[in-house]
Write a structure and sequence with these properties.
The chain folds into two domains: 132 residues, Response regulator (Rossmann fold), CATH 3.40.50; 64 residues, Winged helix-like DNA-binding domain superfamily/Winged helix DNA-binding domain (Arc Repressor Mutant, subunit A), CATH 1.10.10.10. Helices cover 48% and strands 10% of the residues. It has a five-stranded parallel beta sheet, with helices on both faces. Keywords: DNA-binding, Phosphoprotein. InterPro entries: CheY-like_superfamily, EvgA-like, NreC/VraR/RcsB-like_REC, Sig_transdc_resp-reg_C-effctor, Sig_transdc_resp-reg_receiver, Tscrpt_reg_LuxR_C.
């Protein structure tokens, strides 16, 4: 029987990943490490924003870098701006060191490769809950000593309202105003108002300039999905 007063007791996690197989495996890894943990799941940015609003007191958010409804690092930056008290650890199959370092620059408390075994996941979770930065050892050495680059686009994305963020994401995906209005169930006039505010914050004058600015946050998508490591059954 789990000790309710032991390390990790009463912890709450948000697990955000659009792939149900990996999301389930990650939840199982958390429960293996923290049997009493509460876990809230999200499959896209819309559901994640609801989860974050309702469970802003969570101890850790595990965020897939390629969530539907986000554009590159924009999801990480937006959430860090909206919920600065909520630690975010990026989880991705994109394991390039420069991507990991950039995630930390944008506010992540760590970067967990999707290929990590359960022992490494446990190590990363303990470090994040202790308030430490966690990266794979070889990447941590590479990132050490590097100063975070000033990024005006990141500052803008962090300041967006949820509606402005949705508009920015759909704009970057090439949707027209009428399509954005349909997806958001608002009028085209409302979309134009959001775009005007977005252009002002970005310091641009056209859709093309806005898309180029947002695209600077792009991340190369990972290769073909590899199923997560099989987790041991609870004792």
């Amino acid at each position: 029987m789990a000790n309710p007063t032991g390390p990790g007791a009463g912890r709450k996690f948000i697990v955000a990943d659009d792939h149900p197989l990996f999301r389930g495996a990650l939840c199982q890894s958390i429960r293996t490490t923290f049997p009493d943990a509460r876990i809230v799941e999200a499959k896209d940015m819309d559901s994640l924003q609801r989860c974050a609003a309702e469970h802003g007191d969570s101890d850790l958010l595990l965020l897939d870098l390629h969530m539907p409804g986000a554009h590159g690092f924009s999801g990480l930056i937006f959430l860090s701006g909206q919920y600065p008290q909520l630690p975010v650890m990026v989880v991705s199959a994109n394991e390039k060191p420069e991507v990991m370092c950039r995630a930390v620059d944008y506010g992540a408390c760590g970067f967990l490769p999707k290929s990590a075994p359960v022992e490494t996941i446990a190590e990363a979770l303990h470090a994040a809950l202790a308030g430490d930065l966690w990266l794979p050892a070889e990447v941590a050495r590479q990132c050490a000593g590097e100063s975070a680059a000033q990024d005006d686009i990141a500052d803008v994305v962090a300041s967006l309202t949820p509606q402005q963020f949705r508009v920015a994401t759909m704009l970057a995906e090439g949707l027209l105003n009428k399509q954005i209005a349909y997806e958001m169930n608002v009028t085209e006039a409302t979309v134009k108002a959001h775009l005007t505010a977005l252009f002002r914050k970005l310091g641009v004058n056209s859709r093309t300039q806005a898309v180029l600015a947002i695209s600077s946050l792009d991340v190369e998508p990972p290769g073909q999905f590899t199923p997560p490591p099989k987790q041991p059954a609870p004792a």
